[in-house]
UniProtKB/TrEMBL annotation:
This is Uncharacterized protein. The keyword Transferase does not apply. Keywords: 4Fe-4S, Iron, Iron-sulfur, Metal-binding, Oxidoreductase. The lineage of its organism: Bacteria, Pseudomonadati, Pseudomonadota, Gammaproteobacteria, Alteromonadales. PANTHER family: COB--COM HETERODISULFIDE REDUCTASE IRON-SULFUR SUBUNIT A, FERREDOXIN:COB-COM HETERODISULFIDE REDUCTASE SUBUNIT A. Signal peptide: none annotated. One of its GO terms (molecular function) is metal ion binding.
Length: 759
């Protein structure tokens, strides 16, 4: 029997000390991606999370869907889903969890972290103290886990703060801001005339379910919607659950850090009051069998501290899509602000203004001023309150997290300080290593110096010459305008032939459009227009474009709205080609056109957006001259997704097997191969609630073999569903020939691949 006597001096907590390369505070998606990135690059990592699960606002504790630049596929940011580690996580979640159960996402994140031998994970552990060597250098953080009564001291060379409120950066003394900057500071036209303290608030969600028999609800005494404005009361729907209730928000006019518990309790009042209203007001039908299945126990917090970095993103960086030499990430969510009073406000629940395309985020925004070994992640990065409205969303935060994990590894490898990363050679090395791993950065490409296949002679068993999108018995009514997005060549006149079906005699207008910025997908420039007088029935139209484009670029063959006309579609899908529509997506404040009142520094333009599969078929058409855009040489052009062009090699339609043959100028010693597949970077992979039609992307090659010049198999993969496959050889080998044999199981989608890298 164990016994302990009274100790008059008291006892100390159990103490554990860790010595690691990098200590990361915060286990949201940004912290998780930073930890995985650093660990996979050889660093010892301690990931400290104050909650019982990973994922932050995406976890089962909050249950918000994860999004970034794709924005529910409701903006003009085509092929903009974040790549790299967050893409790996989202595709894994899709494969296991297409229905969007956040409990499954919890396991995906936990597995990703715990299989990494270099990561020590501390859950339910809150950092409460910071020690420093000097004014600008942190030596350790101290944290406590209430579940095992253990105090942890984590000593590290580098520290990352992804805690949301910036607990480490705050205690370390890093400069920060809370609230909105005045217009005059950065000349942001959306900014208020004077500084303001109003922030975005917190939200709590609930889930309900039908139990098959009547249930009653007796509300707690604190439940109340008495203070809710009529606008918010009118939004209550029994069918809405989870993140569709994002507007159940409050607290932006309180202290979102120190009053967070008060905000949470106020939201509990509202949530239980809303459920009481649904069940007991008598204003809703079909709610008798509904029960309240789950209510969030912690709020999803949107905004608190932002730390001043070596540069600060502002509204103009986003709207003008300004370039940054030290770009390591990108964003594309709308500039999205909410009234601080939330459910008690008469103002609309949110105000979203989109940009015409994505923008880049510089490394300097992750480096706080006056600190020598600290990075900030996620919603802590250096951005004005206006810019923060876009940078704050989870997949954008996660994408930046991977970049910082790799940045720290580069510092360790080369024994350099954080700010030495800003030097051209070092930032280039960081960018290249990220690109190789599938971490897309707009306007950058992988250098041929990093790919031993770059100088190869490449031949393919077949290559698709896109002379047509073959017709199927599928018709699309033009209740709103639609367009076929195609990669066209400069100095070429095209002719497109398509079939339409008119309900009566009418006139159809077709247009060739481009974007006013080469890398954007906002079709706001009309190059050519032609009108067709239609008779009732099916007829072929020949749309000839006598105007040639000055540069290779994506263009849009537009069918202008006419509800009396249907256009024939194709059941064939192919990498880098898609249909879009001038439609609405109210989930992201898209009503087909972004109108702007007054001069607030925001563009007006139309939204042309895709339809989710199984809809979203291409428009059937013959194309003359044919588009020779799927050459084998694309596999070494350094770009791993559609950007300015498809950037893919594609085999002929219906080829169930196809090969690529690389003949190197001379034999090379190969340590690893990295293959980049098409997982439809246009498709938003919301992690919860939405549900998805597929659990793998139809363009992605599942099965392949790799042979050397003697037809010896050097690698084989089956059932792949990830964008990036890295094959590391236990024993490097020398060869001057590689043969890739790909198989496709998805009907109506040809074999395709973006990039193959040998190192």
């Amino acid at each position: 029997m164990y016994k302990s006597q009274f100790i008059s001096a008291g006892r100390e907590s159990h103490n554990v000390e860790y010595h690691v390369d990098v200590a990361i505070t915060g286990g949201g998606l940004a912290g998780v991606c930073a930890a995985l990135s650093a660990a996979r690059n050889g660093l010892k990592v301690c990931l400290i999370q104050d909650r019982p699960v990973l994922g932050g606002n995406a976890s089962s504790e909050v249950r918000l869907w994860s999004l970034g630049a794709t924005s529910h596929m409701g903006n003009n940011n085509r092929y903009s889903r974040e790549g790299g580690i967050i893409d790996e996580i989202m595709l894994e979640n899709l494969y296991r969890n297409p229905e969007g159960n956040t409990l499954i996402l919890d396991t995906v994140l936990l597995e990703k972290v715990t299989v990494e031998e270099n990561i020590t994970l501390l859950l339910n552990t809150a950092v409460y103290d910071v020690d420093k060597v000097d004014d600008e250098t942190i030596s350790s953080v101290t944290a406590y886990c209430s579940q095992n009564s253990t105090q942890y001291v984590v000593k590290a060379d580098y520290f990352c703060d992804g805690s949301g409120d910036g607990v480490v950066a705050f205690m370390a003394g890093a400069p920060f801001r809370i609230g909105a900057e005045a217009h005059d500071e950065f000349s942001e036209k959306m900014a208020p005339a004077q500084e303001e303290s109003e922030l975005l608030g917190h939200s709590i969600y609930f889930y309900s379910k039908d139990v098959g028999q009547p249930t009653k609800f007796i509300p707690p005494s604190f439940a109340s919607i008495d203070k809710m404005t009529l606008d918010r009361v009118k939004r209550i729907k029994p069918s809405d659950i989870g993140p569709r209730l994002w507007w159940l928000e409050f607290g932006g006019n309180l202290d979102t850090i120190y009053q967070s518990e008060d905000i949470k309790f106020e939201l509990w009042k509202v949530v239980y009051g809303v459920w009481d209203y649904i069940k007991n007001s008598g204003k809703f039908e079909g709610v008798e069998n509904l029960t309240l299945e789950w209510v969030g126990t912690i709020p999803g917090k949107r905004e608190s501290r932002r730390f001043e970095g070596e540069t600060m993103l502002i509204q103009q960086d986003l709207v003008e899509q300004r370039s940054h030499d030290d770009a390591i990430s990108y964003g594309g969510w709308a500039i999205d602000h909410h009234p601080g009073d939330g459910v008690y406000s008469d103002r609309p629940p949110c105000q979203q203004y989109h940009t015409k395309g994505v923008y880049t985020i510089p490394l300097r925004s992750f480096v706080p001023q006056k600190m020598e070994n600290l990075f900030v992640l996620g919603r802590l990065i250096s951005a004005s309150h206006i810019a923060f409205g876009s940078t704050r969303v989870m997949c954008t935060c996660a994408h930046g997290g991977q970049a910082i994990g790799r940045a720290i590894a580069l510092c360790k490898e080369n024994n350099i300080g954080i700010r030495e990363l800003f030097e051209r050679d070092n930032i280039n090395a960081l960018q290249q290593s990220l690109l190789i791993d599938g971490h897309f950065i707009p306007s950058l490409k992988i250098s041929p110096a990093h790919n031993k296949l770059a100088g190869s002679r490449i031949t393919a068993s077949s290559t698709l010459l896109l002379s047509s999108l073959p017709a199927s018995d599928i018709w699309k009514r033009l209740n709103f305008s639609g367009a076929q997005m195609l990669p066209l060549c400069a100095n070429t006149e095209y002719r497109f032939t398509t079939k339409v079906r008119a309900a009566k005699a009418t006139v159809l207008t077709m247009q060739l459009r481009t974007s006013d910025r080469l890398a954007n997908y906002t079709p706001n420039v009309i190059i050519h227009e032609q009108q067709f007088t239609l008779t009732e029935g099916i007829q072929a139209l020949e749309f000839s474009c006598p105007v040639s484009l000055p540069e290779d670029q994506y263009a849009f063959i537009c069918f202008i709205q006419n509800a009396d006309v249907e256009v024939m579609q194709s059941d064939k899908r192919v990498s880098g080609v898609m249909s879009i529509f001038n439609g609405e997506n109210k989930a992201v404040s898209n009503t087909g056109f972004q109108g702007v009142e007054g001069d607030i520094g925001i563009d007006e333009f139309e939204f042309w957006i895709p339809e989710r599969r199984p809809a979203g078929h291409n428009f059937a058409m013959d194309i003359e001259p044919a588009l020779n855009c799927y050459r084998p040489q694309n596999t070494v052009n350094g770009i791993t997704r559609p950007y300015l062009a498809p950037n893919a090699w594609v085999a002929q339609w219906n080829a169930s097997e196809a090969t690529l043959h690389f003949k190197l100028p001379e034999a090379q010693l190969l340590n690893q191969l990295i293959l980049h597949f098409d997982t439809d970077f246009d498709h938003a992979l919301e992690s919860s609630l939405m549900g998805h039609h597929e659990n793998t992307m139809p363009f992605c090659i599942a099965d392949y073999r790799i042979l050397d010049g003697n037809n010896n198999e050097v690698a084989c993969r089956q059932s792949n569903y990830q964008s990036v496959n890295k094959i590391v050889f236990d024993t490097p080998f020398k060869t001057d020939t590689l043969i890739f044999v790909f198989k496709q199981k998805t009907e109506h989608v040809p074999i395709s691949i973006f990039e193959i890298i040998a190192q």
